[in-house]
Design brief:
Layout: H1 4-12, E1 17-21, H2 28-34, E2 42-50, E3 53-60, E4 64-65, H3 67-74, E5 79-81, H4 84-87, E6 110-113, E7 121-125, E8 131-136, H5 137-144, E9 147-149, E10 152-153
Parallel strand pairs: 2-7, 3-6, 6-9
Antiparallel strand pairs: 1-8, 2-3, 2-5, 4-10, 7-8
Amino acid sequence: MPAARLKEFLDSKGVRYVVITHSTAYTAQEIASLAHVKGREMAKTVIVKLDGSLAMAVLPASFQVDLDALRAAAGVKEASLATESEFKDNFPGCETGAMPPFGNLYGMPVYMDESLKKDKEIVFNAGTHRELFRMAYEDYEKLAEPRICQFARTRTGAPAA
């Protein structure tokens, strides 16, 4: 069952979405493949620490967070990946690693890579390792209010285009 908090939030805002069920998978690339979603079209949520405070970095599944670029975009002195033990208790009702990209529901800011704006829809984990939500990108941006910047990089270091 999708994260109840997110489902209630979207329903209360009258937002249309589709729940996609797939077999259990843990990496964003694996999930995208199982759900027949291109890795560039699926958003993954990476929990980072910016000057010691937790934040969400949302980017295409096929990319990695460039911590230097995120640090500069966020205007902070330090940026690092958060460990599971540092964030797992912040997402009640969600399986660890399957957090939906709505920081406003969990008390943390959201930084989204600008490359996700190119698609009309956004697909992301629904709080479990078996379900995704697909919804209009426009609705996501309006509800999640992410700070949009460029920080996604390929494994070779090229920026997301």
